[in-house]
Design goal:
The two termini are 55 Å apart. Residues 302-331 have low confidence and may be disordered. The longest helix has 27 residues, at 61-87. By secondary structure, the chain is of the alpha/beta class. It has helices at residues 5-17, 20-26, 31-45, 61-87, 105-116, 132-139, 188-192, 225-233, 243-251, 280-289, 292-298, 324-327, and strands at 50-51, 58-59, 94-100, 123-129, 145-149, 159-167, 169-173, 196-199, 219-222, 239-242, 256-258, 267-274. The chain is elongated, with a radius of gyration of 29 Å. It has three domains: 5-87, Arc Repressor Mutant, subunit A, CATH 1.10.10; 94-166 and 269-298, 3-Layer(aba) Sandwich (D-Maltodextrin-Binding Protein, domain 2); 168-262 and 302-327, 3-Layer(aba) Sandwich (D-Maltodextrin-Binding Protein, domain 2), CATH 3.40.190. The strands form four sheets. Strands 4-3-5-12-6 form a five-stranded mixed β-sheet, with helices on both faces.
Length: 333
């Protein structure tokens, strides 16, 4: 290896300070030492890095390229040094978090902002999962913390699980959809006649789950909650949405929330991690999730959005009776 970080530091200082002498002063070296470092680097690479024909040495094209790419290496080296030091204090180099589709991402961002104020140096990687995929990501070691897990925990054990809260679902259709004009509550056979929109389970190693779909019903499967909302707004199908998401679209009259006849329980969500993990970043997030206000926010409405059951009704449409069935819509995802 003919390049050294020391030589790259010298090149960087010369370019920023404008002269060999000024660079030597910044680096606490004599000017001859800086000149020797540059000459040796040119000799080792067999490339002229400076044009010395004028009154002032100017970087050549190869020298400029070396400087630009070398600065990337210097930054990477400084970052690596910082992370190694932080790792020695117990902070992980990276923390991987899976968020289920029912989690309100808008409300998770302030949690991330608070974590970054710790200046831990831990990189955070957030991924999105659906249904069984949230558990699957944790079991398959793709993530360190899974937020929004539902259903049975793995039989193998070795995971800590804490309750997050209940997710309330409502049945929603576009104002132009035939079901929007039907009297409430909607019956099973009425819903069965129309296509449902569902988010596909993201499990890779476990059998996929489907929730809230009727046997024999036509289904449009999409990759995310955002795509499901868009498809329902476009009138491509009907389905259940988390109340916080449905109310956003109902508030601008792009979706209509309908009562249903059948009763389905609310979905209970939790957060989970491997019991053997003890990194400080993981512990920070687990501790933060113990706050009831944080847990409620992750499953709650968007900030500044309507949160009552009357928003989004079409003109002249009566407000719904808030029945047990409408409060606990089936979670078709």
């Amino acid at each position: 290896m003919k390049l050294s970080l020391e030589a790259l530091q010298v090149l960087d200082a010369i370019d920023r300070r404008g002269s060999f002498a000024a660079a030597a002063e910044e680096l606490f070296r004599v000017p001859s030492a800086v000149t020797y470092t540059v000459q040796k680097l040119e000799q080792d690479l067999d490339v002229a890095l400076f044009d010395r024909r004028g009154h002032r040495a100017v970087l050549t094209a190869p020298g400029l390229e070396l400087l630009q790419q070398g600065r990337h290496l210097l930054r990477a080296a400084c970052e690596l040094e910082f992370r190694v030091k932080r790792l020695a204090t117990g902070w992980e180099t990276e923390l991987r978090i899976a968020l289920d589709a029912v989690i309100n991402v808008d409300r998770f961002l302030p949690v991330l902002a608070d974590f970054y104020r710790e200046q831990s140096g831990t990189r955070v990687r957030v991924s999105g999962e659906v249904l069984g995929g949230t558990w699957d990501a944790l079991v398959s070691n793709r993530v360190d913390l899974a937020i929004g897990v539902s259903g049975e925990s793995p039989a193998s054990g070795g995971y800590a699980v804490r309750p997050l809260g209940s997710v309330e679902f409502v049945f929603a259709v576009a104002p132009s959809h035939p079901l929007a004009a039907r009297p409430e509550p909607l019956r099973r056979e009425q819903i069965l006649a129309y296509r449902a929109v569902a988010v596909g389970d993201t499990s890779r190693n476990q059998p996929p789950r489907s929730v809230g779909l009727l046997s024999g019903q036509d289904v449009l499967t999409v990759p995310s909650l955002e795509a499901k909302i868009a498809a329902q707004v476009a009138g491509l199908g009907c389905g259940y949405l988390p109340r916080f998401a449905a109310m956003v679209e109902a508030g601008v009259r792009r979706l209509v929330i309908k009562e249903v006849e059948e009763h389905n329980p609310e979905e209970r969500a939790g957060y989970a991690w491997r019991t053997g993990e003890k990194g400080r970043a993981l512990r920070w997030f687990v501790k933060r999730l113990e706050d009831p206000q944080v847990r409620a926010a992750l499953l709650g409405p968007h900030q500044g959005r309507p949160a009552n059951g009357t928003a989004g009704r079409t003109a002249g449409q009566p407000a719904p009776r808030r029945t047990r069935a409408s409060r606990r819509g089936a979670p078709a995802r």
